[in-house]
Amino acid sequence: MNIITKRIRGMQDVLPQESKEWETVEKIMKEEAELYGFKSIRTPILEHTELFERSVGDTSDVVEKEMYTFNDKGNRSVTLRPEGTAGVLRAVLENGLHNNPLPLKLMYVSSCYRYEKPQSGRYREFFQFGLEIIGASDVLADIQLICTADSILKRLGINSVSLEINSIGCPCCRKKFNEALKNYFEIHSSKLCQTCKDRLYRNPMRIFDCKNPECGEICKGAPVILDYICEKCSSHFEKLKTLLKSVKINYKINPEIVRGLDYYSKTVFEFVCNIDGTNLTLCGGGRYDDLSEILGGPSLPAIGFGMGIERILMVMKKQNAFFEKPSSPEIYIAPLGEKAVPKALELCEILRRSSIFAETDIMNRNLKSQMKYADKINSRYTLVLGDEEIQSGKAKIKEMKNSKEYEIFLNENFINNFLDIQFKNYNI
Ligand code: ATP
Ligand code: MG
To answer: For the whole prediction, is pTM greater than 0.85?
Structure first.
């Protein structure tokens, strides 16, 4: 096929039927997050490359291999956002939002770009619903964020999701842990892939992210971070577990969760769903207490998550979730003859001003083809408007599913007549 009519690998078109499903999911996510006090934020798709190098981390898979980075016409290196948090925090700092009463609770739906190997549930353009609580260091913020994610997944009706939590400590506890990891991985270094060999000295924790099965095997015997975290981080984690119990959210501790982005500290978590025997991470997040300072801002402890919308939809479809179809017209007005055309336009406008989905002909079709079309687009009622109707000021509305007809006046009573007909039929 000609390259002009072929989409870029790993990217998807969301067609009208599916768009409706996306909108439903996004609406539920936003409504639920609003109940917890989150407000929307929109940030640009492009950021300076340095923002991601510094925040996501230059030893992460995302920065090392997956970013869409290019020079713009001013020869500045820019990057299509691979995730949402860094841009949101940059916007908070740049616009001084942190000078407002804290915490800031922000939500967004962002397209993200990662040059990964496309496969089921993994795309090069994907969409994340993200939440961030900024300016709150207490574990109560962790709980509120996890509760919000849990309520969203429940409201979407997703089954068999489990929450996995871990603590990856603070930079202070990670120093000791990284030493232990280096010692361990050095012994096994001959079996590590080249990327992990490089990471061994730069950031050994990243080896846990490697998707290579041999590296995964070696990771199984590696030291566990929970044995290395300091008293403060450990007490944070203990409180998290107690509070999760009190809000009745089941969890499992998974010491292998380190998350793919460098800026996390203390609490990290994932909501995982088992689909056809494989685990799919639907939502991943964690604390990023030091990110603001890393970006040159003040101390601004925070926690957030990203939920993959494609993966959520994939699971909902597998679990036979019900989705409404895109709406079809309430009424199709078929003009017959020259005089009827402007009248049909006028009546359609009147209907739309009352929030009624109305269609009319814009193809100069004859009556037969118009009726065929009205049927195909599933219009509930049709109204044929000819010279006779215009002269008498009356017409007939036909309900397509049962061919029942109702009289309607084409004067100022038109809209009330139509609403009456609709109302009567809803009550049957
Ligand atoms: P994974 O381990 O699956 O690669 P990740 O750690 O890279 O995930 P995050 O950066 O935390 O993922 O992104 C948060 C969420 O965004 C994930 O839980 C997932 O639902 C979704 N996600 C991440 N990468 C992709 C992708 N390439 N395609 C579709 N969804 C994705
Ligand atoms: Mg990844």
So the answer is: yes
